[in-house]
Amino acid sequence: MTNEKLENGINPNGKGSEQNHSPFEVTRHYAFINENKVCYAISSITADLPETEECIHLEEGYTINTGDKYINGVWSPAAVEPSPDEPSIFQRLEAENAELAKKNVELWEILVSQGVI
Fold it and tell me: What whole-number distance in Å separates Cα of residue 43 and Cα of residue 32?
């Protein structure tokens, strides 16, 4: 292969090759929101999209996630709602405490039956 300059991704033999990206291309970040102002997708592309009600330009170093809300130009984190089927932390700790209390009684009975206590 010769050292000829590649133009438009085509080498001197007419075969395509991967193009190097221009050092002037800038990656832009966009959030896409639905009618409820909730972000459902985040995209990082080199295209310059027009900002609309559904497509919001994000600054470099953005800290939003899908599910976050965009209201009056301000992002708010998504509300984390526990699943109705998932027990609360209190319910889980209460169940764990009951299980430990049951084991303590069993161990106490073993120690008493062996004359240790």
Answer: 8
